[in-house]
Amino acid sequence: MPAANRDPRQRWLMTLSIVIALALTALPLPGVMAPLRPDWVILVVIYWCLFGPGNAGVLLIFFTGLMLDVLNATILGQHAMAFVITSYLPLLLHLRMRVFSWIQLTAAIFGLLLVYQFILFWINGVAGDSTPLIHYWAPVLTGTLIWPVVMLLLDGMRLRTAGP
Amino acid sequence: MAGSNSDTQRRTAAVPALGFRILFFALLSLAMMAIDHGRDNLDGLRRTIGVIVYPIQATVSLPSRFIDWSARSTISRADLERENNQLKVERLRTRAELQRFNALEAENARLRAMLKASGKVTDNFSMAEIMAVDPNPYLHSIEINKGIRHGVFEGQAMVDANGVVGQIKVALPFSSTAVLISDPDHALPVEVLRNGLRTIAFGTGEFNRLELPYLPNNADVIIGDLLVTSGLGGAFPAGYPVATISNINLQPGQPFAALEATPAAKLDRVREVVLISPKDESGKTEEHLAEAEDTDASRE
């Protein structure tokens, strides 16, 4: 149903979920947990690339990345670039990836998160920031593990708000 | 029918453009990084976005503020009285010390005037609360609730009751990001209080350890020596305590010894910090201070 692609309610839900993901990213965690924090925002962005590509504009994804840059006080454009490049494949292949079983999809998410972290890692390397490796790759694992939950939650909200 | 037809047309027109859009925004962010890196040329944009994300940061810090508030409002009368007495005693003691300090300050100013030296003797202070710690575990940085509107500027020094905490990295209109002295990318010019020996203290990524990699094996340093800011880097005013030497590891084969120091400030449990502004632009900073106190009063 092509009409659902530009559903304003879905766009509203998308914005809300991105704001919640940003808030979860800014939430202070105790020291031991902090390196394990999944990258909520990229998970939500990938979800909307797959299941609401008509609303997930590249400009919006870019701007979400900029907000994360400001929130994390990283170089302006680092997360924006990682977001834009990572969202390319899900935007391009969303029709194919939507029919994946959830195990296949989770595996695909693992690959996408690897690409995402690698871009961040690479930019940090070029910019000359110090980067302990373990803190870098732990979010890939936790993000992959938490993905089915994120997908179930967002699916529930998306299908409930979808128009008749 | 016609609607869905034009929609499919639009979509087929949009799909080939996807690669170009992605490429365009990727190149745009690459250009932004090139402009931003090291020179802070995009501060205006960063501040604008900072205003947009401020509500998120403020909301996230609400639970801890609420816990603080409820802990404060359910405190018992006996506790309050005890605390009040304790504070009175402490105030008396600090006032007594301050009297001596005032005399010393006056003497210092007189001596400097005799030497015709232009020295900043005192600084202005303003309080700030920590809103959030950075989610990035390998960047030791924190968010504070004062911004450009309150007179905060980039590079401003930040201390707590015990010593130097860090400096402002990014100042946004209503909040700021500060980097702690324990950040692996942070270096701080210090001197040994006992003999004035100058060196540089580097962050290690651990809250309770700094490194001093550039002191030779025969340097006159002993465990327990207090390091204070030397004021030579320009960012920090001189004379604030930074750390005490905790470990000296002589390396006979190397040009430098490996020294470690423990920060004086409690970097991992500080909640309020004091921002220091030099008194040179005193008119301006005092005005800002008054403003900040006004807004504080209205918030309380």
What does this protein structure show overall?
The complex is a heterodimer of chains A (164) and B (300). With 164 residues, chain A is mainly α. Helix content of chain A is 73%, strand content 0%. Chain A has helices spanning 8-26, 40-51, 58-72, 78-86, 88-92, 94-98, 102-127, 133-161. In chain A, helix 1 (8-26) packs antiparallel against helix 8 and helix 7 (102-127) packs across helix 8. Chain A is globular. Chain B is α+β, with helices and mostly antiparallel strands and 300 residues long. Helices cover 41% and strands 26% of the residues of chain B. Chain B is built from five helices and twelve strands. In chain B, the strands form two sheets. Chain B has a six-stranded antiparallel β-barrel with strand order 1-2-5-4-3-12. Chain B has a six-stranded antiparallel β-barrel with strand order 6-7-8-11-10-9. The longest helix of chain B has 39 residues, at 77-115. Chain B is globular, with a radius of gyration of 25 Å. The model of chain B is unreliable at 1-6 and 281-300 (pLDDT under 50). Chains A and B meet through helix 1, helix 3, helix 4 and helix 5 of A and helix 1 and helix 2 of B.
Provide the succession of SSEs of chain B.
Answer: HHHHEEEEEEEEEEEEH
Molecular shape of chain B: globular
Oligomer: heterodimer
Describe the main β-sheet of chain B briefly: 6 strands, antiparallel, barrel
Spatial order of the strands forming the largest sheet of chain B = 1-2-5-4-3-12
Q: What's the helix-strand series of chain A?
A: HHHHHHHH
Task: Briefly characterize the structure.
Chain A has eight helices and no strands. Chain A is an all-alpha fold and 164 residues long.
Topology of helices and strands:
The complex is a heterodimer of chains A (164) and B (300).
Chain A: H1 8-26, H2 40-51, H3 58-72, H4 78-86, H5 88-92, H6 94-98, H7 102-127, H8 133-161
Chain B: H1 2-36, H2 43-60, H3 62-73, H4 77-115, E1 123-133, E2 141-144, E3 157-159, E4 164-171, E5 176-180, E6 187-192, E7 198-203, E8 210-216, E9 226-229, E10 241-249, E11 256-263, E12 272-278, H5 282-299
